[in-house]
Design brief:
The complex is a heterotrimer. Chain A is of the alpha/beta class. Chain A has 7 helices and 16 strands. Chain B is α/β, with parallel strands linked by helices.
């Protein structure tokens, strides 16, 4: 049976979060969470493998207690087991630390896993670093931004389009793949699935101690970057404001900038009313 | 005792040359940074038949080129490049390594950072350096229009990836010279665990959003998919392309390849129309090279409005319809 | 007393909302204008258990508790009330009586298909002369051999245009009891089952509401639900349950209307500032939010009592009465806040206004609900 691990993240459902001036951090607690869209596609990719062959899917997430929501959602979609790593000590981890912690979980909970899937990037930090760094921690072959993956025996074949190059790569399991947003449209969870996810399935909750991670080991293997300060970006262009009824605003805009626009589009846009 | 020569390395990502020239842009920035700490700028070029790039990087500002040329390195292999860079960096201890945030770079850089046990910030929109040589990495902070200053204070080298178009390249000067070290391929290079089955340059659409001179970009302020689709008409009238923000792509109003912003296509239009976009940094960070920006938003205080050359306070969809109507009346060849 | 939603309810709400926003929001206005029943979206809903919300797992349902079920109806109705109506009628007044009153062989025959949505259900009591006065039903079911022959006309049947199974309330008078009524499970493929034209209604226009005509329609005796004469009993129990569903629907409509109004009030500028800064508009918003909050708590309370197995008729009536009245008020205010644009079909609020209005009428008018509640209060022993 194929043993698949999917690392998922709960991200805020909004595009902008309020800023806490005092602590210099984002008020993430004010936003409803959702499963990061690329992570959801990674879950879907795992489910599509399970649709075709005997497989077991474990979903893992590192976050505050409320992150359990995304594990339950993944279970409702069809995953088999959920693991939540939750510890105050891990708050504010950068990708370097996160990949270290996730690796420790995988080594403990799914040491003989065959395939690790991650979303290519998150909608909040968008660094796309955790997947590749996790591959390094686990010392497994990896490919990022994968659009399509096939498993045959222990051989994994992936297809991707990167920097305008179409690549088909092969590697042996265990391997790690990050899934892009191109394919793997996620299935909806059925209500029966959602109900079962709360009634039948249990989620393992681990803290740093359970993983053998101490403040010292986190210092040695954890975050390398530090946020020195955060600031609001200044407006860049001295701008001209046009107001008024739409039709008038359009006329004013086109009259004022007709030369510039005409030069770019190669056509005249002089008003027929003008001489 | 002679002080160790400081160096700022730029990884030569050349297969993306025709699209983005990001390596050249990073060399240019490295030259600026190097001036502050009296460092040399070193471009690392790994591959096969790489003379062209050695010349280009020299002409665009590199003081030194570290080149490894071997037939086995013809197509990009992340694993091989990781081993080679890890060894080179281990031997020579650069202070800073800059890598373009291409698809390749965004996978390669974090893995290299892990191997070198150092910190990395991704998609920087700005870089500064203190006189002590601390690289200040300015990257978007989740939350729309906040930026964060990030430093790797305790570990070296300091690493950052930078989006194409963030910095401007120095014009080439083929009179320039650089120290070119042609290094041999190490004998004990491990076999890559990832086998390349197929590797080809993808057929590109002639007219893509990346080469568009006019881009008509829409955000959630368009209201719904039907309204959003009308942007196609304006784009056609102006001979341009339609772009979309991430929320709009996630809502299914536009395909993923229309995504404009940090994680999307790198654009450099002469005119950019921004309809119903608030101006979250993840979007605006991708607009660096837009020449003339026209923003339309109900909210005159929206960030995008402040970033525009012309800001029109109006309902995006309403104004779009009026603009299309008026342009149809006016346009003649 | 637990007031905050538990994680399960939160995820169920997110799931239903996500589906509604993705699949129904883009088409809701069009299907209302053109009166189109969105078959392809209904097809997607089948696999996700929208048609077997509270059916036990062994029959292929989701086995949800009543609050979860109400949340699903609420979220669908928040985007497209007509489809919310299809779901709540199917679950609330077609599946429910089968669950409660059917015998084992009836359950085994009909529940799996109903739960899978392969078969859409309807419940029909109303006739031209029998609206609130349910006792004046004229449809008859006369025993003939092993069949009951059904004759009569039912009007305003929700899901009428597409239902495959309808529960029909008919007179089965006996010499002893002239006004005895019973309920039959009638399949649309029985001969003599005819559908009328689709009604052209003010709201819920994407729901295929029609009359059903029965002309000597033979219904096998094994399709009698419960016992002969159980009509009133089943009817009343079913309406109690149906009221929870309609209350959820009304709540969803109110919620959607309020959200639209708040968004509009923040964006619309008059006198150089958003209208949301005007005190009158703020008063409207405060009233809408408070009424919706109260309606929600009333609804969930009724659900809780039902799930505890206690009689819930009075609370269900209160929920239906209040939620529907809130829906009318809130959608009216929401339209007013939108001003002239609210009157135009370019904005959704006028559809919410039209959809809300019927929630005070069907499944028992507000007048009937007051009757039910008053009777319950008056019959309580004095302290």
């Amino acid at each position: 049976m194929l043993n698949i691990v999917v690392c998922i993240k709960q991200v805020p459902m909004v595009n902008e979060l309020p800023w806490d001036e005092k602590t210099g951090t984002l008020r993430r607690d004010l936003a409803t969470g959702m499963m990061n869209p690329a992570c959801k596609r990674a879950v879907e990719a795992a489910l599509q493998i399970k649709d075709k062959q005997n497989a077991s899917i474990t979903v893992i997430t590192m976050g505050p207690p409320v992150a359990e929501e995304v594990l339950r959602e993944a279970l409702a979609m069809g995953a088999d087991r959920g693991v939540l790593i939750c510890d105050r000590m891990l708050k504010g981890s950068d990708t370097y630390a996160t990949s270290f912690v996730l690796a420790e979980v995988i080594k403990k909970e799914s040491p003989d896993c065959d395939l690790i899937l991650c979303g290519a990037y998150t909608s909040d930090s968008e660094t796309a670093q955790v997947g590749p760094q996790l591959a390094e921690e686990l010392s497994v072959p990896a490919a990022a931004y994968v659009e399509n993956l096939d498993i045959s025996g222990r051989t994994l074949r992936v297809r991707r389009l990167v920097d305008h190059f179409r690549e088909t790569l092969e590697m042996e399991c265990p391997a790690l793949v990050t899934i892009s947003m191109e394919r793997y449209e996620p299935r909806y969870a059925s209500f029966a699935g959602l109900n079962r996810a709360f009634v039948e399935r249990d989620i393992a909750v681990l803290n740093a101690d359970a993983l053998g991670i101490t403040a010292a080991s986190l210092e040695a293997r954890g975050s390398r970057t530090k946020v020195r300060r955060v600031f609001i970006r200044k407006a860049q262009k001295g701008n001209v404001m046009i107001t008024g009824a739409a039709a008038n605003a359009v006329g004013e805009f086109l009259d004022k900038y007709q030369r510039k626009i005409s030069a770019v589009i190669g056509k005249s846009i002089e008003s027929k009313n003008q001489t | 005792m002679k002080e160790r020569q400081k160096s700022i390395w730029v990884f030569g990502d050349y297969r993306n040359y025709y699209q983005n020239r990001v390596t050249l842009q990073l060399i240019s920035k490295a030259v600026d940074l190097a001036r502050v700490i009296a460092a040399e700028v070193c471009a690392v070029v790994v591959g096969h038949d790489i003379e062209e790039w050695i010349m280009e990087y020299t002409a665009h500002g590199a003081d030194r080129i570290l080149a490894i040329d071997h037939p086995s390195l013809t197509s990009y292999s992340t694993e091989h490049y990781l081993v080679l860079m890890e060894r080179l960096a281990g031997e020579r201890n650069p202070d800073i390594i800059l890598i373009g945030a291409t698809d390749f770079g965004r996978e390669f850089a974090p893995r290299l950072a892990k191997r070198l046990k150092t910190g990395l910030s991704a998609d920087c929109v700005g870089l500064d350096i203190t006189s002590e040589g601390l690289l200040v990495q300015i990257a978007p902070s989740f939350g729309g229009n906040m930026l964060a200053e990030i430093v790797t204070d305790k570990h070296r080298p300091q690493m950052a990836t930078v989006r194409p178009g963030t910095f401007k390249e120095i014009p080439h000067n083929y009179e320039r010279t650089a120290i070119v070290e042609r290094l041999p391929l190490p004998a004990n290079l491990p076999v890559s665990r990832v086998r390349v089955v197929e590797y080809e340059r993808a057929a590109q659409k002639g007219h893509t959003i990346e080469n568009a001179t006019v881009i008509v970009c829409g955000g959630r302020g368009m209201g719904n998919k039907k309204n959003f689709k009308k942007l196609d008409e304006l784009a056609r009238l102006l001979g341009g392309d339609v772009g979309a923000t991430r929320p709009v792509v996630y809502a299914g109003w536009a395909e993923h390849d229309a995504l404009v912003g940090q994680a999307g296509k790198h654009i450099k239009p002469k005119i950019l129309f921004s309809f119903g976009i608030s101006g979250a940094i993840q979007h605006t960070a991708g607009l660096g090279e837009a020449n003339f920006i026209v923003a339309i938003n109900k909210n005159p205080q929206a960030t995008m409005m402040k970033m525009a050359d012309v800001a029109i306070a109006a309902d995006a969809s309403d104004l779009l319809n009026n603009l299309i109507k008026e342009l149809k009346k006016r346009i003649r060849d | 007393m637990q007031f905050d939603p538990c994680m399960k309810h939160k995820l169920i709400r997110n799931s239903a909302r996500n589906f509604a926003e993705t699949e129904l929001a883009p088409i809701a206005a069009e299907i209302d204008q053109q009166r189109i029943f969105p078959r392809n979206v209904i097809a997607k809903m089948r696999e996700l258990n929208y048609f077997g919300l509270q059916v036990p797992q062994e029959y292929g349902g989701a086995a949800l508790d009543s609050i979860s079920s109400a949340i699903v109806v609420e979220e669908i109705s928040r985007v497209c009330a007509a489809v919310g109506l299809c779901v709540t009628v199917h679950n609330g007044v077609a599946v429910y009586p089968v669950l409660r009153f059917a015998n084992t062989s009836q359950k085994e025959k009909y529940l799996p298909q109903l739960a899978a949505g392969k078969v859409i259900g309807a419940f029909s009591l109303t006739e031209a002369n029998a609206g609130s006065d349910a006792g004046s039903v004229e449809t008859t079911a006369v025993k003939n051999g092993t069949n009951y022959i059904l004759n009569g006309t039912k009007i305003f049947v929700t899901n009428g245009g597409v239902c495959d199974v309808a529960l029909i309330f008919a007179l089965t008078s006996s010499p002893v009891n002239k006004l005895q009524s019973s309920v039959f499970i009638v399949e649309s493929k029985f001969p003599g089952f005819l559908r009328g034209e689709l009604e052209d209604l003010c709201g819920m226009r994407a729901n295929p509401v029609s009359s059903l005509f029965f002309e000597d329609c033979p219904v096998p005796e094994e399709n009698l639900l419960g016992q002969l004469g159980d009509g009133m009993k089943i009817g009343l129990a079913t309406l109690d349950n149906g009221r929870i569903g309609v209350a959820a629907q009304a709540l969803g409509i109110a919620q959607g209307a309020m959200e639209a109004a708040v968004k509009y009030a923040k964006e619309r500028q008059q006198f150089k500032k958003p209208i949301a800064s005007q005190q009158t508009i703020q008063n409207y918003i405060a009233d809408m939010a408070t009424q919706i909050m109260a309606a929600r708590l009333l609804l969930y309370r009724a659900c809780d009592i039902k799930d505890a197995g206690a009689p819930f008729g009075c609370e269900a009536s209160m929920a239906k009465l209040y939620c529907s009245s809130v829906a009318s008020k809130v959608t009216g205010l929401a339209l007013q806040i939108h001003g002239g644009y609210g009157y135009s079909k370019e904005y959704d609020v006028e559809r919410y206004f039209r959809d809300a209005r019927v929630t005070e009428i069907y499944e028992g008018t507000s007048e009937i609900q007051r009757m039910v509640i008053a009777r319950a209060i008056l019959s309580q022993p004095m302290m």
